[in-house]
Amino acid sequence: MANNDDLFYSRIAVNNISLSDLFTSEHLFYRIPESWHVVITDVKDSTEAVKKGLHETINLVATGSIVAVMNIVYNANLTIPFFFGGDGATFIIPETMLAPALKALFQHRENTQSEFNLDLRVGHVTVSEIYNNKEDLKISKLKTSAQFEIPVLLGNGLVYAEKKIKGKDYQFEVLTGNTEELNMEGMQCRWNKIMPPENYSEVVSLLVMARENVNPAMAFKKVMDAIEKIYGTPQKRSPISISKLKLKATLAKISHEMRARIEGFRIFYVLFNWIKTSLGYFYFKTKKGQKYLASLVEMSDILVIDGRINTVISGNAHQRELLENALNKIEKDGEIIYGLHVSKESVMSCYVRNMDDRHIHFVDGAEGGYTKAAGVIKQKMLQYHL
Fold this sequence. Notes:
alpha+beta; eight-stranded mixed β-sheet
């Protein structure tokens, strides 16, 4: 049975207000219990892997991290905050979920190494350690559409955890003697690269960090106000639209997904899912299929607030120039550091527990948008000696 600490996140009310209003409502944020843990995965040397054209594989591995953990969490009838980051994922989980979550992630790491020769780092830091190091983790929930809600996190606690896990002194645990099959049910990656909606020409992957000694809520409010003014509502600036969605029912695509889910090659899996995906063309012409596509667009994860702003936006070059001008001013004032990457398409990987109401779709700019935007931030931090 779940204890009170386990139910901390489940009991937080969902706020149906604008993100800007949420940023100015400190009373709607709650401090994460000290007994919880931050668990982080990321593909080591992802920047180099992206240069080799492995960006879709990296997105798939990151999505696999989320599927591996969330299948365990959902089976325990719990909810936790999690964040997709392009080349990895972050979870904040109660003590009772730590061991099974790490066990699943270690299996996913082994499979990623054997199938793709990519090194997936898996590490964790206690929330109490984060607080002891004078960093904070405050969380709220925001309703972003009729069907979709996101966690909104303020504080540099995840940045601290990430630095520790990526540091040279961090001791990674090793999985030994585990023979259980990893549950990756619901993981899918069958959509082709997605062109921007009609009348839009580009996709922007944007990362924003608040500078130290700056109120992040106020800095992020300025950024989101600029985005809203230039690009409009999340629905207007979403890079995902029904008319541009195209299934990619190739054996190679399905085989690639299979390798991220299970070790080794299984011909029955490939053929069954190839037939199933091929029939998807007909399913999506039905009333039920159209409803699913509409909810897919609505439940696409295009905005992540994990102590930073991570968002994927579609628009045109003029809008992007206006955005860069606005961000440059906020950055020059010493409030933020930002990085962005521009591409012509977005990529999407999915976690579909069922076709009715339990699915989420993780979006990144093509060519490793988030990873390349993070690279820009790293260069700026060196430039500013941060």
